[in-house]
Amino acid sequence: MEFGAKLKEIRTSLNYSQKELSEQTGLTLRTIQRIENNEVKPSLYSLKVIGEVLKTDLSEFVKSSEAKPYEFNFTIKITDMNQFLNDLKSLVKTHWKTIFIIVLVIYLFTSYTDIKSGIMDAWSGK
User: Fold this and answer.
1) The whole model's pTM is what?
2) What span, in angstroms and rounded, lies between the C-alpha atoms of 39 and 70?
3) All domains of the chain, ordered by start, with CATH?
């Protein structure tokens, strides 16, 4: 059984409509529909808020083979700016060290000649 079908089963067993779930989670109705129809994989934020409302740990339904922590899909359609910002915020919170290292390496590579000349000037006593 796919994730969307499992989510729908849990939602209906707790007598929630898609609209009620949407209102209580802050997600759009269309997002709930797309998740249940397996049109999209839910974001970490979506899983969290849906799980809180349904009082269910949804992480057990996500297969470990589907979890690819360093794979990012940038071919997204931004239909809900709040959802995008929440996803971006959770991405930065969970991977801030990796992002920091990438920015630092890019800075060092782009400023290599300036850094090298500064070290050489300091070494020669100028």
Assistant:
1) 0.49
2) 21
3) 1-64 (1.10.260.40), 76-126 (no CATH)
